[in-house]
Amino acid sequence: MENLLERAKTYNTQLGLTFIAMLILILFMITAPGTFLRGRIYISFLSTTPFIGIAGLGLTLVLVSGEIDLSFTSVMAFAGYVFAVTMGFTGSIILGILAGMAAGAVVGMLNGMLVTLIGIPSIVVTLGMQFLIRGATNIIAAGKATTLTQIAGTPIYNILVSEIGGVMPAQAIWFLVLAVLIWSLLFRHKFGDHILFSGDNPETARMMGISVTKTKILVFMLFGVLAAFAGILDSFRLRTWWPTMGQGYLMTTMAAVFVGGTSMFGGEGTVYGTFLGAFLIGSLEAGIVAAGLSGFWTRFIYGILILIAVTVHTVLRRT
Amino acid sequence: MKNIHKRFGGVVALRGVDFEVGDNEVIGLIGDNGAGKSTLQKILSGLYPPTEGEIIIKGNKINSREYSVRKAHELGIETVFQEKALGQKQALWRNIFLGRQPTTKLGYLDVEQAKSETTRIMKQFLGFTGAGISPDSTVSTLSGGERQGIAIGRAMYFEADLVILDEPTNALSVKEIGKVLDFIQEVKRQGKSVVYISHTIAHIYEVSDRFVILDKGEVVDRREKGELTEQELIDELTHHAKKSEQAQKEGN
Question: Do A208 and B99 touch (CB under 8 A)?
Answer without folding.
Answer: yes
